[in-house]
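Data card: per-record layout.
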Amino acid sequence: MDKAIELRPYQVEIGRAVLDSVLHNRGLTFTVEIARQGGKNELSAQMEVLLLTLFAVKGGNMIKAAPTFDPHVRISVARLKERLKEANLGGLWSPEAGNVLRLGRVRQMFLSAEPSSNVVVATAHILLEMDEAQDVDRDKYYKEFRPMGASTNVTTVLYGTPWKGDTLLEEVKQANLEMERTDGVKRHFHQNWEEVAKYNPLYRAYVEGERQRLGESHPLFRTQYLLEPLSGGGGFFSSQQRAQMQGHHSRGRSLEQGKIYVAGVDIAGEAEEGEDEALRAARPRRDSTVVTIGELDFTQCDEFMPEPTIRIVEHYWWTGQSHASLFPRLVDVLRNLWRCRRVVVDATGLGQGVASFLERTLGKGVVTPFAFTAQSKSLLAFDLLAAVNSGRVKAYAADGSPEFQEFCAQRDQAMSHLRANQTMNFYVDPRQGHDDFLMSLALLVKAAEYHPRNARGRVAV
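The structure for this 461-residue chain is written out next.
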């Protein structure tokens, strides 16, 4: 690795350990956790360039796999081509069928590790790499990729960042740590963001900004920068986060001139006209349509917290109401009572019709439909946690109302579940209640992405 003079000391240490195993046919398996944007992909590409040149005459295969073809495999291929060009090898390598690069008699193969992918039967003679190994299916790895190096005692490297405790990366990492304690041979490399920042002041500034924005307890900050695996799930909000959400401002019943208001609307399923009190008292109660109104305060914005504070000022809660009867109420609340600048509406399933109606009535510039999918809900969860951690979300002072009590109940009962590909679900256990206030809150945070031209101080309505 001496040729790769641009690599940082921690990258050089890893590279030398891997190359020693390759060149002496030790067949070691390494796990490499480097904080996000800390250079693991650069390290991988530089090793590939060096091994391609070292084995150009002898020949053999190197194999690199990633969780998806697009973007993971495409990015790895493009990076290797760039590094070959920079090493003045651009005219010496040639492409083969599929994602294969040949230099002399040695080949670098790139494969998708998606569960449904048809992996080409091949032997890994020199090196087997698994990128973003925390997202690679364990069965896929052990049944289809690991055997590729069995006959050659191939050196294997699993790169990634932690997620939860039952991922492929975490499993191999724990096995490596146990073997290290037995024979003293280093197999696991762990470089969190502070180690990376020693060599890059700009990176330090960026990650400190992310810590300010997300909060150190945020799942993405913990896994991608602190390199801490998470438990499989549990309470969505900690006791500290729940306390942090509680504000001291009074509940508002109408708008104040000069203030900016936005709203999150969670839509209940279609229902016949009924009595709210009776349906709410039933256990389990009927799902409800919930509107959460928030006032945006830009006066505290600065370079460390560029987003506004969100003060929840009002809740509306309708249970057992048909969508037809809700239309005029929603329009009156959102347009006439609060003059909301932005409204994010649940447009999943039957909610799509309500969202379309509001979009036509209030305008596309005001209403944003939001369809809940596994991916979009995960992003919503991360954004909500970031807003809470940064102290941007504040509920009105306790007033003993049914709305406030239900909001607090759902906040306290909210659960989370970690899923594959670093996604998260959040919800209230149906046996305990509903999550309509919780989802309305999350949609409110999405609505708070509104940015007026003059985002500081009072803005005229």
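Known properties of this structure: The first strand starts at residue 29 and ends at 34. Residues 279-284, 455-461 have pLDDT under 50 and may be disordered.

See the next section for split statistics.
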